Amino acid sequence: MPIHHRRTSTLTALACILFAGAPAVAAADIPEPLNGIVYSGSKRVVTRVTLNGIAFDSVTVFSDLPYLLWPITPAPATSQPGPIATDPQSVGTWLALAAGELGYAGFTPRFTERFAWKDHEVFAYELVHAGTPLHDARILVHRDESGLLGIVNQIDGRVAAIDPVNSAVAEAERAYYLVPAPAGDYRAMAVRADQRRYSDRSTLDIIAPDGRVLESEVSPDPVMIQRDDTPVFTEYNVSGSFPDQISVAEDGMVWYSEPNNNQLVEFDPLLEQFTSHNTTGASGPDGMIVGSSNKVWTGMYYSGGLGVVDGSTGTFTNYPSPYSPSAMAIPVETSNGSIWVTDHANNRISEFDPVNEVFLQTIIMPTPNCWVVQGHEDTTRGEVYFTEYNANRLGRLSLANSTVTDIITPGGGPAFCVYSNDKVYYSRWSESGIGVLDIPSGVITEYQFPVNNEPGGPLWIRPSGDVVVGTRNQGYVMVFHVDTEAFSALPIPTSFAGLKDGMTVGADDIIWFTETGVRKIAKLEFCLNSCPADFNGDGEVNTLDVLAFLNAWSAGDPEADINEDGTVNTLDVLAFLNLWGAGC
C-alpha cells in the first residue's frame, strides 16, 4: 500500500600524524554512515594509508589526495586518532598536524559549524591562511558516540604555493582561490570575495587580481510554489533492496533499476502493481532510461554491455560491450535514434545503433579518469553534455563529428545534468546547490540551495521548464524556478531516505524518485489548493484553521512550512496569518 503525506578523548591523541601511502587493496566497503559521500563510492579503488600507526582505507576523487578516509576496524582503543575528541578545537588541532599529507600545507583548519549527517554529527572546518579563507574548501569530520567515523578532505588538489595576502583588499573581502599550477598541483591565488545583498538574494563573486570573475554564486531567498498548488508526496514500499535510477514511459508506466537484484522493475501507478524483469546473473543493471518504442535501456555495470527490455513484450536482450574491461552505466537516447552509454570506471562513452543492433563507436574521454556520469542532449545544436564528476568538468559531445570538448566548472563534483532552453543545469554532488551553464555566453553560475548541508543528487526538467533536484542528507526535492531563479524546498516525508541517483518527471508533471536507503519509490505531484488559508480543509476560513496550523507548527510538521524554505519557524506563522487574513 502507498503511504501518503501532505506536505572522550584527551589531547594525548594529538600526536604528529604521518600518512604513508600503500598500494590499492581489496578492502571492506565504505562504512554505511559514509555511503553516498563519494559518487559511486562502492565502485572505487580503495587505497590503504596509515595515520600514526593506525590503518585507514581511503578513496581519491578530484586529485591524488585522499578524499574520503575511514579507520580500519577494529582499531586498538588506546591508539584512537585525535578526531574522536569531543571538542571541535582539539579536532582542529589534529587536522592542522595533518595538513601536509592532506594537501593544504600553509592553511589552518578553523571550525565553522556542526551539523547532522544521517544518524551522526559532523564537525566542519574551513581552511585559512593569515586569517583569509580558501574558497570552497572544507574538512568534514564525521563522528558519533563511538568516536571517529571518517574524514572528508574537500579540496580540489594539493596546495603548492600561496600568494601573499592582498593588503589592498578589505580584510572582510579577502579570500584565496585555487588555480592550477605546474605538475598538477594548485596555487592559492589571493582574490577578492565580493558579497552583495539584493532584495531577494545575495551574490558572491570571486574576482581575480586582474578583474576577471572566476566564480559567481547566487543564494536566492526561498519562495513558495509558484502556483496555487499543494505538494503531495506518495511513497511506495518496494520488495527489492536497492531501487536506483527511475524513468517514466510514454504509457505512464514507471520503471526503475534494481542492480543488486539484477532486475528492472515496472510499476503501474494506477493498479499499484510491480512487475520484475530479470536481466542476466551478476549483471548489475545500473543507469536506466525508457526510450522510444517503449524500450527500457540499462548499462550492465558488472557484466559489461548494454541491456534492453522491450516494455511491450517483456523480452530482455543483452548486447556485449565492444571493449574489455567494461562497466557500462547510464544510457541516453539522442534525437538521431542512437543510444549513448557512459562507462565511469573506464572513462568512455559508446554509441549503439538499436536498429541494426550494433555498437558504432567508443570514445575515450579527453580528461583521464574523469568519471563520466550521465548525459543529456541539446537537440537544437546536436550536442550531448556529459557530467565529469572527478574532473569538475562538463564534456560536450558533437554528434556531427564525434568529438568531446571539456568545459571547466567551478567545482563541487558535477553529477547529473539536463539541457533546457540554451542552458545546461547540473547538480553538485559535494555542494548544496546546482550549476547552470549558459551556452551562448559560456558563463557558469552556481545557485545555492536555501537549506545548508544538503548536497545535490539527481535532477530533471518539468514541462514548465523548471528544474527539480533531489538532495542527499535529510532529503529535499528542490524546485528551481527558472523565471525567478529561486528555489522552493520541499522536505521528503521520510527523512534520510537515501535519495541517490533516481529522479524523473513524467509528461503529466508528476515527479518520481527513488529512496534507495529505505527501499521505496516516491512521487511528488502538485494538487490544486484554491485556498491555502483553509488549513484544516473544511471549506471555511476561521479560527479553527489558525488552531490547526499552530498545532502543526508546534509539532514541526513539514506541512506548517508555509513559505517553503525548508524550515518551520516564526516566518511561517507570519506567512500563514497573511494568508488567513486575506481569506479565500
Describe it.
The structure is a single chain. This protein starts with a strand and ends with a helix. The model is unreliable at 1-28 and 75-81 (pLDDT under 50). Strand 42 (511-515) and strand 43 form a beta hairpin. It is 7% helix and 46% strand. 47% of the residues are buried. The protein is globular. It is mainly beta and 584 residues long. Among the domains are: 8-157, no CATH class; 543-582, no CATH class. Helix 3 (543-554) packs antiparallel against helix 4 (570-582). Strands 2, 3, 4, 5, 6, 7, 8, 9 and 10 form a nine-stranded antiparallel sheet that branches. Strands 11, 12, 13, 14, 15, 33, 34, 35 and 36 form a nine-stranded mixed sheet that branches. The protein contains four helices and 43 strands.
Report strand %. Answer: over 45%
Weakly predicted, low-confidence segments = 1-28, 75-81
Helix-and-strand structural type: mainly beta
Question: Cα distance, first to last residue?
Answer: 34 Å
The whole-angstrom Rg is 24 Å
pLDDT averaged residue by residue: 90
Quick one: biggest sheet?
9 strands, antiparallel
Instruction: Give the fraction of residues assigned to helices.
Output: under 10%
Name the assembly state. single chain
Choose one word for the global shape. Answer: globular
Secondary structure: number of strands = 43
Number of helices, counting only DSSP H or I runs of 4 residues or more: 4
